[in-house]
Amino acid sequence: MATVSTIHSETKLRVTNPASGEVLAEIPTATAADVQTAIMRARAAQPAWDAIGPRSRARVLRKFVEVLNRQRSEVAALITSEAGKPEVEALLTELIPALDSAQFCSDQAERFLRPEHVQHANPLMKTKKGYLLRQPHGVIGIISPWNYPFSIPTTEVVAALAMGNAVVLKPSEFTPLCALRLQTMLRQAGVPNGVIEVVIGDGATGAAFLSSAQPVDKIVFTGSVRTGKQVAQAAAAKLIPVVLELGGKDPMIVLDDADVEVASSAAVWGAFVNAGQTCLSVERCYVHRSLYSRFVTACAEKTGKLRVGNGALPEIEVGPMIHERQLSVVERHVREAIAQGAKVLVGGERLTNLGLNFYAPTVVTDVDHSMTLMREETFGPVLPIMPFDTEEEAAGLANDSEFGLAASIWTRDRARGEALARRIQAGTVMVNDCISGFAISEAPHGGIKSSGIGRTHGRMGLEEMVRVKYLDSDLLPRMSKIWWYGYSQAFAEQMRGFVDFLFAGRWDKRLKGGLKSAAALRRKKI
Ligand code: NAD
């Protein structure tokens, strides 16, 4: 694990365009002291931000929607230059979810933060009024990855801000410019200084969120399982709560009644969007044997037609991968699968003529679960397809994974799809669609098993950004409580009656218990 001592202020981060290698910026990285200063600035600014109330904060977030919408083309171009994805994907999969979640949070904040009345069934507690108060944690540390460098931090930041928190954001070292742009636009919308801090650096900068003398109050981490476990361990040592949005190996199940044309297009888009570098990518595809050969042929044909290149060109459908390290993971998975008997129908190689980081969209068959390609997150443009014979087998294959982020089921029979969805171990299961659940602001996003802990997005995502306080207020302040001191044999007997009154199976026993316990109301207490 990276330690704070590895942070040096003189270190500069070089940000490059993954398609062309062009240097976009050189930014000094934050030292441990810088991180501490950012946390303290955020802590100082947070009470006033909380005090203005949800309605005023919602107004600022609505203004942010306006600012972002006005600047959407420049932001999309920045995303493309920093992360490589086609500009249309930047608009569809980054800008729209970001705008929609800001809108969602501004619409929901006031109602969500209203005190929630808690009803008491127990007659002993009827003299009390109870409320759930939802209050901000204080300073939320958000650590984000490079693959959705704008939408992931934005959806998390706006939820944290709407709830009255201040945020210190550490974006991926590969895509810091998107986060700096987000900070600028939030400030333009009226988020006060200090309420949104951005610190730039690698893992060591992120580790300083927790190792600082005054750490953040909660961490919302999105990234790999390996780093997520390190963050969880560091947070556990200080009992700091965490949300972990980690990797996936999402299965796609194509049932025997599915529309081959639609499902094959979905598989190709689901596996190759953002060059396969999507946590919700179709990473494994299981197809009923009766459709298998038609489905594989359709996928291979459609994949062969995809236009790969620099995402800044409007006709490009698949951009570069982010860096050499990720590309070599993909190469290793495909190479090992081939050595174990897999067949590559399309792709399966680097496209060095296009630049450093390009890998051809690849369709692989003859795969099985002994292969790394079917077990570990590949996170690249590879679509492995495997046949199955029964739904039972398909569910077993889908669930045979360390991960549980999302899954998709394809069928003409929605009820059948929904029934199978209940048996799949995942945070989200989509019937007749894939990936797009992330863009539904009302839908919780997150995984089970190694895919993470907690949720972002939707009401559950807002819930992660608050501490729940139970406020209990007694309506009879001058009455001493029946259970206070002054115990006696008679009181014990009355209380036995009271337990009968509450829980006895027969109504006559309840009535008798009630009568027996009534005398306790007149009992003398100390
Ligand atoms: P990563 O784990 O390498 O890095 C993620 C972030 O953590 C970066 O900002 C990095 O600098 C920081 N970091 C690294 N070491 C740290 C440490 N010790 N303490 C604190 N922070 C540290 O992941 P990545 O390569 O940037 O992203 C790809 C991974 O993210 C994939 O596994 C993908 O599935 C996952 N992901 C998950 C979701 C989701 O919502 N579940 C979304 C997007 C990406």
Give the overall average pLDDT.
96
Principal-axis shape = globular
What's the main sheet like? 7 strands, mixed
The assigned structural class equals alpha/beta
Write down how many β-strands occur, each being a DSSP E stretch of 2 or more residues: 20
Number of helices: 16
Q: In order across it, which strands form the biggest sheet?
A: 12-13-14-11-10-16-17
Listed once per kind, the bound small molecules are:
nicotinamide-adenine-dinucleotide
Q: Explain this structure to me?
A:
The protein is α/β, with parallel strands linked by helices. 42% of the residues lie in helices and 18% in strands. The protein contains 16 helices and 20 strands. It has helices at residues 32-51, 53-70, 72-83, 87-113, 151-162, 176-189, 203-211, 225-237, 260-272, 289-304, 324-339, 391-399, 414-421, 458-464, 489-503, 507-518; strands spanning 12-16, 23-28, 116-118, 128-136, 139-143, 166-170, 196-198, 218-222, 242-245, 251-254, 284-288, 343-346, 362-365, 382-388, 403-404, 406-410, 428-431, 448-449, 452-453, 466-474. Strands 12-13-14-11-10-16-17 form a 7-stranded mixed sheet, with helices on both faces. Strands 7-6-5-8-9-19 form a 6-stranded mixed sheet, with helices on both faces. It has a 3-stranded antiparallel sheet with strand order 3-4-20. The protein is globular. Bound molecules: nicotinamide-adenine-dinucleotide (NAD).
